[in-house]
Design brief:
about 240 residues; mainly alpha; 2 domains; flat
Length: about 240
C-alpha cells in the first residue's frame, strides 16, 4: 500500500512538471513562432532513460580516453628523459623499470577497462649522438671535480667542529662575565644568561646548518659525477662496439 502511494505521488509530480514545462514552452514558443508540442515531444524522445544512460556512458568513455591520452603522453615523456639509463639496461631490467613506472603513474587513476602499459622502444643511438653524449658527460665530470668537492666537504666538516667549539667557548666567557656583574640582581643575571645562551645557540645552529648545506651540496655533486663516470664507461663501450661493428 505504501509503495503504491509513493508511486502515485511520483506520478503526480511528473504530471505536474510535464504540465509546467508545456505551459512555459507555450509562452516562449508563442513569442518565437515555434510549436511547443513538437519541442516537448522531441525532448521526450531524446531524453528517455536509455538515451540518457547512453549519453552518460559516452561522456564517461571520452573522459577516460582523455585521461589515458594524458597518462600515456606523460609516460612517454618520462621514458624519453630516461633514454640513456634505459639504453644500458638489460631487456628484462628495462621492461621491469617501465612496468614499475607505469604502475606508479596509474595507481589510483581510473582508465578504460583492460588498459595495458603502452609499448616503448628505446632506439639505439647514432654515432653522432653517442659522441655528443660523451662530451656532455665529460663536461659534467669536469664541473664536479672530485678532489675539490672532497676538500670542500672536509673544510666544512672541520668548520662545524671549530665553529661550535669557538662559540661555545665565547658563550662560557660571556656567561662568566654576566655572573661577575655587580650591577644586576640575581634574577636579572639569570635572565641575562638565559637570553645570551639562547642567542648564542641560535647562531651556532645557523652556522652549522649553513656548513651542512655546503656538505650536502658537495656530496650530491659527487654522486652526479660518479653517475656520469659510470654512464661514460657504458657510452665508450657502446661506441667501441658501434665503430668495430
Amino acid at each position: 500500500m505504501l509503495n503504491q502511494l509513493q508511486q502515485n505521488k511520483t506520478d503526480d509530480t511528473i504530471f505536474a512538471l510535464s504540465a509546467m514545462c508545456r505551459d512555459l514552452l507555450g509562452v516562449i514558443c508563442a513569442k518565437q513562432g515555434q510549436d511547443a508540442d513538437s519541442i516537448f515531444n522531441e525532448y521526450l524522445k531524446n531524453y528517455t532513460e536509455a538515451n540518457v544512460t547512453k549519453q552518460q556512458a559516452e561522456a564517461k568513455r571520452k573522459e577516460l580516453q582523455e585521461i589515458l591520452r594524458a597518462t600515456v603522453s606523460d609516460f612517454n615523456d618520462r621514458a624519453k628523459s630516461m633514454y640513456w639509463s634505459l639504453l644500458f639496461m638489460s631487456e628484462k631490467d628495462r621492461t621491469d623499470r617501465l612496468n614499475s613506472m607505469w604502475k606508479s603513474m596509474t595507481e589510483g587513476v581510473e582508465l578504460p577497462k583492460g588498459t595495458k602499459r603502452p609499448g616503448y622502444i628505446n632506439k639505439p643511438p647514432s654515432e653522432d649522438r653517442l659522441l655528443e653524449r660523451r662530451k656532455e658527460l665529460q663536461a659534467i665530470i669536469e664541473r664536479n671535480n672530485k678532489a675539490q668537492l672532497e676538500a670542500d666537504i672536509d673544510f666544512h666538516e672541520r668548520n662545524i667542529i671549530g665553529t661550535t667549539k669557538a662559540m661555545e667557548a665565547d658563550l662560557a666567557k660571556m656567561t662568566k662575565s654576566i655572573m661577575a656583574s655587580k650591577e644586576m640582581t640575581k634574577e636579572e643575571i639569570q635572565q641575562s644568561i638565559k637570553v645570551t645562551e639562547a642567542r648564542q645557540k641560535s647562531i651556532i645552529r645557523q652556522r652549522v646548518q649553513e656548513h651542512k648545506r655546503h656538505i650536502d651540496s658537495a656530496k650530491s655533486r659527487l654522486n652526479v659525477a660518479e653517475d656520469a663516470k659510470a654512464e661514460l664507461k657504458n657510452v665508450n663501450q657502446f661506441l667501441s662496439k658501434l665503430l668495430i661493428g
